Amino acid sequence: MRVVSGIQPTGNLHLGNYLGAIKQWVAMQDSVTSKGGDCLFFLADLHALTQPVVPEQLAANTIEMAAALIASGIDPAKSILFNQARVPAHSELAWILNGTARMGWLNRMTQWKDKAGKDGSSQSVGYFGYPVLQAADVLLYKASHVPVGDDQKQHLELARDIATKFNTDFGVELFPLPEPLISTLAPRIMSLRDGSVKMSKSDPSDMSRINLTDDDDLIVQKVKKAKTDPAPLPDNAAELADRPEARNLVTVFAALSDQKIDAVLAQFAGQGFGAFKPALADLTVATLAPIRMRLAQLLDDRAAVGAALVAGAARATALSAPTLLAAQRAIGLQV
């Protein structure tokens, strides 16, 4: 089993990133590597170039996000952790696969259609074609599985289409078809100010999210001021269907405590948020405080974090080189 996944270095991680992806990555790392498999986790700095960037900020974000991943439990000794740009084979294979992918396939990408309907003509060519780079990211390592959320299923299907067409066009069996790894445990964490939208680092209100760098007092304040409703908590999840803010806070508690939502409700049924929020704040602080302290230690020595990425890139390069060479030979670039 070989798992490949990436995350864009767009700034400080928040609770939604941690519970929705990184915590699952850590569990996956421990499960897959204990059975002799490989986990590759990369900072997708090449994907970041599809939007306007500030060079110094991109470089800083890459180190800071790598540090946040390590602080959260990604172990560079177990997993291969690197930033994409340090492995030129990603770009090289993406260009090769651009000759295989079809415009019609990319035009059907839902995320592109959403953009094109508004200001598609002003978007970069890279934004239109980045699903091909995503395909290269996973095909380069002959990934067997790729963790995906609902919004990325279509992109993995594109990667499979590209792999199939390349294999067929050039009469090779180079690229296996990666399978989606969909965790039923990964929660969808919403804004603390609006239960109908995802928690996001781009939200102008810092009170809408809990950052991994927030101190204990700020976490408590944000939980205390999180939007709720006046009704007490029910004893079953079905009764939260029309209460998005209440459902979100219960979801956070369940994810942090590794419980089912119904188990959390059984504990707090009939109680109001005056009792629930302090318990949630204590649990959030207990979970994030060690991560924040470890993150601070790592950022005191950014050179060491950079060195870890260099070492990971060397391992990734060695793993990817045979695949790139085989692709080059298949299309006549190498003999």
Précis, in short:
Helix content is 56%, strand content 7%.
Tags for this model:
single chain, 335 residues, mainly alpha, 3-stranded parallel β-sheet, two-stranded parallel ribbon
Q: How is the biggest beta sheet arranged?
A: 3 strands, parallel
Q: How many individual helices?
A: 13
What would the average pLDDT be, to the nearest integer?
Answer: 94
Main sheet: strand order? 1-2-3
Kindly estimate the percentage of residues that lie in beta strands according to DSSP: 5-15%
Count every beta strand, where a strand is a DSSP E run of 2 or more residues: 5
Computed structural class: mainly alpha
> Would you list the SSEs in sequence order as H and E?
EHEHHEHHHHEHEHHHHH
Task: Tell me what you see in this structure.
By secondary structure, the chain is mainly α. It is 56% helix and 7% strand. It contains 13 helices and 5 strands. It has helices spanning 15-34, 45-48, 55-72, 89-98, 103-107, 110-119, 125-139, 153-169, 216-225, 244-257, 261-268, 273-299, 302-330, and strands spanning 2-7, 38-43, 80-83, 145-147, 179-181. The strands form 2 sheets. Strands 1-2-3 form a 3-stranded parallel beta sheet. It has a two-stranded parallel sheet with strand order 4-5. Helix 3 packs across helix 12 (273-299) and helix 10 (244-257) packs across helix 12. The radius of gyration is 21 Å and the shape is globular. The protein starts with a strand and ends in a 5-residue tail after the last helix.
Give the secondary structure arrangement, pairings included.
Blueprint: E1 2-7, H1 15-34, E2 38-43, H2 45-48, H3 55-72, E3 80-83, H4 89-98, H5 103-107, H6 110-119, H7 125-139, E4 145-147, H8 153-169, E5 179-181, H9 216-225, H10 244-257, H11 261-268, H12 273-299, H13 302-330
Parallel strand pairs: 1-2, 2-3, 4-5
Helix pairs in contact: 3-12, 3-13, 4-7, 4-13, 7-8, 9-12, 10-11, 10-12
